[in-house]
Amino acid sequence: MNKALLLRLSLSSLALASLLAAGAASADNAFPAGNYKIDPVHSVAYFEVGHAGGISRFMGRFNDISGDLVVGAPDKSKIKVDVKVDSVDTRSEALDKHLKSPDFFNAVQFPTLSFVSTAVTLSAAGEGTVAGNLTLHGVTKPVTLKLKEVGTGSGPKGDIRVGYVASSTIKRSDFGMSYGIPKAATDDVDLRINIEAIKQ
User: Fold this and answer.
1) Residue partners of 165: CB distance under 8 A and separation at least 6
2) Other Cβ atoms within 10 Å of 130 Cβ, number
3) What is the reported pLDDT for 124?
């Protein structure tokens, strides 16, 4: 075998090895298993209801959200989210005050809304469900949320980050929040939690 052929074979082997290494790195980045902490700056919890008997849709948000994620195989994955009820934000100071009152969330007696997962399913396409226990207004009920992996990548400081959206519809009356149904707001409430979390 001449030197030119040996050189071409060597270069081909190096190129193949580089491609395999890049592919492995890409696969690792696509599913960065580990423990994560929710980034409160880039995460938010939304709620949406039918207003005034359902003539329109009205949305509010909670600005103070925290929690932890374990990303891995479905049987290893976990999600825990805590939301400060006092951080409710509807762009109306008067409505925010009413929502914090005993008529609705009763932020003094029940300051935290929380969700703790019991089972996670997620396909290779990044779509699935997360079942768990939702605690709202002092009542804990099992709920299942649709789960979608938005993406993974590096943050501005090179940290590893993941993004998910979890959504579901609940009845607020199931959690002892029956004020104004349906005249003020519908019983059905759409929930959506946008999560960006940083690997620890």
Assistant:
1) 147, 148, 150, 192, 193, 194, 195
2) 24
3) 87
Residue 118 amino acid letter: T
Average pLDDT estimate for 119-123: 94
Q: What is the DSSP pairing of strand 160-171 with strand 78-84?
A: unpaired
3-state secondary structure the chain: CCHHHHHHHHHHHHHHHHHHHHHHHHHHHHCCCEEEEECCCCCEEEEEEEECCCCEEEEEEECCEEEEEEECCCCCCEEEEEEEHHHEECCCHHHHHHHHCCCCCCCCCCCEEEEEEEEEEECCCCEEEEEEEEEECCEEEEEEEEEEEEEEEECCCCCEEEEEEEEEEEEHHHHCCCCCCCCCEEEEEEEEEEEEEEEC
pLDDT of residue 157: 87
Percentage above 90 pLDDT, the chain:
78
Q: Which residues lie closer than 8 Å to 144 by C-beta, 6 or more apart?
A: 129, 130, 131, 132, 168
User: How far is CA 30 from each of CA 42, 157, 162, 180, 182, rounded to the nearest angstrom?
Assistant: 20, 19, 9, 46, 44
Give pLDDT tens digits for 149-197. 999 999 888 999 999 999 999 999 999 999 999 999 999 999 999 999 9
Total Cβ atoms within 10 A of residue 124: 7
